[in-house]
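Reading a protein record of the kind used here takes little practice once its layout is understood. Each number in the token line that follows is a code from a learned vocabulary of backbone shapes. One such record is shown here in full, so that the layout can be seen directly:
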Amino acid sequence: MAADAGSSQRIDRFLWFTRLTKTRSQAQALCEEGHIRVDGRRIERAHAPVRVGNVVSLFVQGRVRAIRIDRLPVRRGPAPEAQACYTDLAAAPEMRTTCSSAGNIDADESHP
């Protein structure tokens, strides 16, 4: 069961309920350190609200994740239930980029 589409939820609770962080304290720390963005805005407060349709970017477990909120969870349930609350945008083909072709300089090219 999910909350209404017009309602909001604290970002730290959302991250913990959806199992994107292991603990709520870890979610709060990510927010306070500025590692979270909601719709492109840097979040520095754990109590910042998120709503259905928001795009959340976060740096967790050594990688950047971008997700779109599809529904707000009401509890920290099992993993399949948590994953049903968001869409992972990095998995979308149009979001993929290759790091190997972006900005690497060949050894043959010399710079003065």
Observations:
- Residues 24-32 form the longest helix (9 residues).
